[in-house]
Design a protein that fits this description.
Length: about 575
């Protein structure tokens, strides 16, 4: 529904009446019931068609025709709810419920509105009214328990739980609810009796005995509760519930020997879920770190827990993460990650970590292999295309790099990180330029800067290539200047800006920036030194130009850079 609409004037309603085939005169002659029904049916038709404005006006007119009929108020309240006018919506619902107090739909909707407005006592009264008509509404009884709890009327919450128990029958859930309520009320014996009754009724269900023992422990009979739990553990050593309860008891008592024993039992129990084992191991890690962080005990537990065949990967990943945190050797972590991929070859975190290890070891072939498989199992994950492309690029396999990147760019979307997308297009632009596909390279740079307009490296490289091609120099100058604003001490950026100014014939300005580039250059760059010589030569300082040209020549041969040696020989600037 629209958030606002136009209230139709009465003249429009009269016109609508004519279009529907009846006149104001006929309407006036009809009794109010027929008029009400006619407008109400019309309102419902508009409502079904999604014509909210017309439906709203029709329902409103219905209330004017007959203010004693509830339906129009009920539907009008929904429109006011959409308009965020909660007070008016609630008033209309109250009117509808008052007019038809036996209509459960009206009363339940009113109760829900009371709950949304935090008017819990009113909600309780409304729900109790519905339950007078239908005592077996399990959903409403469950809500009522929570409302009584919210209002701290714990006795009524217990009574309502008993009413629900009569409908559903005795269950662990309701027994626990009632026992917990009794405990909060300070009635410890009643809490115990509730769980005991359930355990006695179903003596073969070990879990009910565990619940009884736990309630004993919580309500002042800790020794008896522990005794029953240990008895259950002896009789059913694979009962996880008893083991978890005993673990909590041993931890509270500080019984390290029994605690360690039950922890090992849980970690090696085939029936224990992987999620539970991860919870146990996280707890052991925290405890170990608080005690000084000696990893030996934790690693032993991980080995114990993963000794049996693993169906899932979470525990193995936690094991690998812990070893990384403890800066264990990478070759001891990699087998775990390989094991993860053996179970779940589409596991992105494990593959990325293996790829990172290979990358740090400069094993680009392994990076490519991992990424190729990653693309098979996760074809929409952009990262594997990117790293495969960069790894191929580093191995001078430019065609392969460009091919995989062009495949991967189709999966870049709004969910791709800005940095990741920008880097993707940046490396594509570099490859395209190397292949002489300059217009495509520039288009890739444009895409890169759409994702990350403040990428100083791309701004610099894009500007430099435009300058080399002697095109769009004004655009190049603006991009280069922005790269300096973003990274003012970067010698490459300063050199690019100086060279663009030089190409534009602004030699004096170029000299200022080439000097800054030289001051920030720690690599003794040949290109930068030659640029400096060219700029000084065009500024009329041949002596300074010769100094920089000779420094550049000291790192090259005449065969490598014929133009540079000709400049030195002729003592003048020469274009490439």
């Amino acid at each position: 529904m629209k958030t606002s609409f136009t209230i139709l004037p009465l003249s429009h309603l009269l016109l609508l009446g004519l279009l529907l085939g009846f006149s104001p005169h006929v309407m006036a002659d009809e009794d109010s019931d027929k008029r009400y029904d006619r407008f109400f049916m019309e309102a419902m038709m508009h409502r079904e068609k999604g014509e909210s404005d017309a439906a709203f006006e029709m329902f409103r007119h219905c209330t004017e025709i007959d203010s004693t009929k509830a339906e129009a108020y009920f539907f009008l309240s929904q429109y006011y709810e959409e308009l965020k006018d909660k007070e008016q919506a609630l008033r209309l619902l109250e009117r509808a419920a008052k007019l038809e107090p036996s209509n459960p739909t009206f009363i339940e909707t009113l109760a829900a509105s009371y709950i949304n407005n935090r008017r819990y006592p009113d909600a309780i009264a409304a729900i109790e009214k519905v339950l007078e008509q239908d005592k077996e509404r399990e959903d409403l009884l469950s809500i009522l328990i929570q409302l009584y709890e919210q209002e701290n009327q714990l006795e009524k919450a217990v009574s309502t739980a008993s009413r629900l128990e009569e409908v559903e029958g005795k269950s662990e859930r309701l027994t626990y609810i009632k026992s917990d309520l009794y405990t909060r009320m300070g009635n410890q014996q009643a809490a115990i009796n509730e769980t005991k009754a359930l355990a006695d009724q179903y003596p073969s269900d070990v879990n009910y005995r565990c619940l009884y023992a736990d309630m004993l422990y919580r309500n002042g009979q800790a020794q008896e509760g522990e005794r029953i739990l240990e008895e259950i553990h002896r009789e059913a050593p694979d009962n996880i519930r008893a083991m978890i309860a005993l673990k909590a008891i041993y931890k509270q008592k500080g019984d390290t020997l029994k605690l360690d024993s039950i922890t090992r039992d849980l970690l090696t129990l085939p029936q224990a879920s992987e999620e539970l084992k991860c919870v146990v191991m996280n707890e052991e890690i925290r405890k170990n770190e608080e005690a000084g962080g000696d990893s030996t005990a934790v690693l032993n537990l991980f080995r114990l827990a993963t000794r049996q065949k693993q169906e899932g990967t979470d525990l193995l990943l936690l094991y690998a993460s812990y070893m990384e945190m403890k800066e264990m050797p990478k070759d001891s972590i990699q087998p775990l990650l390989q094991q993860v991929l053996g179970i779940s070859p589409d596991n992105i975190p494990a593959r990325l970590r293996l790829m990172l290890y290979a990358w740090n070891q400069n094993d680009m072939n392994k990076v490519v292999t991992l990424c190729k498989d990653g693309n098979l199992y996760n074809p929409e994950f952009v990262g594997f295309y990117y790293y495969q492309g960069v790894a191929s690029y580093r191995m001078d396999k430019y065609d392969q790099a460009l091919d995989i990147l062009q495949k991967g760019k189709d999966f870049i979307n709004a969910e791709t990180g800005n940095d990741e997308a920008a880097n993707f297009y940046e490396i594509m632009a570099e490859l395209l330029y190397k292949k002489g596909l300059k217009s495509q390279a520039y288009a890739a740079y444009d895409s890169c800067l759409q994702w990350k307009p403040d990428d100083a490296g791309s701004l610099n490289n894009y500007a430099y290539y435009l300058c080399l091609d002697n095109i769009e120099l004004d655009k190049a100058e603006k991009m280069s200047r922005k790269s300096i604003e973003l990274d003012a001490k970067n010698a490459n950026n300063l050199d690019t800006y100086a060279w663009i100014l030089f190409t534009q014939g602004r030699h004096s300005e170029a000299r200022i920036y080439i000097e800054q580039a030289l001051q920030n250059d720690s690599t003794n760059s040949v290109i930068l030194l030659e640029h400096a010589g060219d700029i000084y030569a065009c500024c009329g300082d041949i002596a300074k130009a010769m100094e920089y040209w000779q420094k550049a020549a000291a790192q090259q041969t005449a065969k490598e850079n014929k133009t540079l040696f000709r400049k030195i020989k002729r003592k003048k600037y020469l274009k490439q």
